[in-house]
Amino acid sequence: MRKRIGVVVVVLAMTGASAACGGADGDPPAAPPSSLGPSSLAHQHAAPPPSPRPLRAGERFVTLTMPRPYRPVAPGGGTDEYRCFLVDPGITAQAYLTGSQFLPQNTDIVHHAIFFRIAPEGVAKARALDDGAPGEGWQCFGDSGVPGDAWVAHWAPGADEVLLGEHLGYAMPPGSRLVMQVHYNLLATGGKPGPTDRSSIRLRLAGDTPPVTPLDTFRLAAPIELPCTARESGPLCDRAAAVQDVGRRFGEDVGGTEDHLVQACSAGRPVAGDTQHCDYPMPGPATVYAAAGHMHLLGRSIKIELNPGTAGAAILLDIPRYNFDDQALRPLAAPVKLERGDVVRVTCTHDAGLRTLLPQLRQLPPRYVVWGDGTADEMCLGLLIGTTAA
Question: According to the UniProt entry, where is the signal peptide (predicted)?
Fold first, then answer.
C-alpha cells in the first residue's frame, strides 16, 4: 500500500520531507509465535460490513461499483495482481469526501484497496490507460499510473466505515474521478486465475457550506530487511536474489523500492534485522487527525512517533500486537500539530518465523523479505491523515 514509493524515494505526501532510516540494532527480539492471537494465525476474512452510520448535515451517499466482475490474473509467475478501475462519482460542483465504506465483494481474494482522486485534467490519461489495457481496468503496481493522483481512501481487513471528523474532508472538484486500485491475492490458487470480484465503495459527499478543511494523506515507509531464519535455506535467502525476484513479479519500479528506501534512509547500507525504522523531518507545519499502519502477514508491531527521544516526544500510533485483520484507521484523541523541524518516525517489526505457522505462506520457498507488492512480501507503511494548514 503506497504511492510509487520506490520512485519518489518515500516522501511525506504534499510536504516533500526527506527521510532517514535504518535497522534498530538494539531492539528486543520479536515475541515468540505462540503469542499471536488466533486471527493473526488464521488470517480471517472480513465479516459482512454493518450498515453505515446516519448521514450528518449536508452529506449524501454515493455508491460506486466496478463496471463488471473482474477475474484477476497474476503476472510474472507471482500470486498477486493490482488492478485499477476508473469510477465516476458524478461531481458537478465543489464537494468533499467526508467518509467512505469499501464493500469488498469477494474477501477471499481482495487483500486491500486504495482510492486515488484524479483531477479533471488527469481524466483523459486515466481513460487512455483503461482503453489501452485488455479487459476491465488496467494493471497498476505502484500507484494509479496517473500523474497528480491523490490518496483519498483505503480499506484493509478490519476496517469498517471511515467517518472523518466534523468539517474535515478530501476536496473533490467538479469533474474529478476516482481510481479504485484493488490488490488481489491469489495464493490460494497458486497464482492461477481464480474467482471473480465486483467490489464497490459507499462515499459520503458534502458541499463546502459550512467550510470544510481539506485533508491529505501523509505516507511514511521504512525498509524491510528480514533474513531467513537459521532453520531456513534456499536460493531466495540471498538478498540480491530476493530483490531481483520482486522486480520479476512486479516490474522495475516496485523491484527497486527496497534499494531506494535503503539509499534514502541508510546511506545505501542495508542492515538485516527484524526491526527497521525511518525518520521524516517536517519541512513545514501540519495537523494530524488520524493514523493507521499497514504490514503483511509477517508483521508483529508498528509504531509512529513524533520527535522520539526528546522531551516533547509523542506517540501518534502504537500497535504492539499487529493483526492483519484489524487495520482500521485510528482517530487521534486530539489533533496533533507538527512544526517545521519536527521528526516523525515509523518503526516496524516483522517475524520470519511466522512462515511456518501461516497456511498461506507455508507452501512457498523461504526468502529474504524486502519491500514488495505481494502478500508473501512485506511492507512497513504508516499513514497519517491531516492537513498542511497549521
Answer: 1-19
Question: Which domains are present in the chain?
Answer: 5-42+216-387 (no CATH), 59-212 (2.60.120)
Any bridge partners for residue 206, and if so which?
59, 96
pLDDT(237) > 90: yes
Contacts of 38 (CB under 8 A, 6+ apart): none
The number of CA neighbours under 13 Å toward the Cβ of 223 is 31
Task: Give pLDDT tens digits for 88-129.
Answer: 999 999 999 999 999 999 999 999 999 999 999 999 999 999
Amino acid at 256: G
**Contact (CB, 8 A) for 59 and 98:** yes
Sheet holding 275-281: strands in order across? Answer: 20-23, 275-281, 343-350, 299-306, 314-319
Cα 217 from Cα 168, distance rounded (Å) = 13
Q: Would the pTM count as exceeding 0.85?
A: no
157 upstream amide cis, omega within 30 of 0: no
State the number of CA atoms in the 13 A half-sphere of 279 facing the CB. 14
- Bridge-partner residues for 378, per DSSP? 371
Over the Cα atoms of the chain, what is R_g?
Answer: 20
Q: Is 68 exposed, middle or buried (0-12, 13-18, 19+ CB in 10 A)?
A: exposed
Single-letter amino acid, residue 311: A
In what side-by-side order are the strands of the sheet with 110-118? 138-139, 80-87, 177-185, 110-118, 150-155
By three-state DSSP, how is residue 114 classified? strand
Assess contact for 122 and 10: CB atoms under 8 A.
no
Give the integer Cα–Cα distance in Å for 217 and 152: 7
Of 171, 197, 172, the closest CA to residue 185 belongs to 197
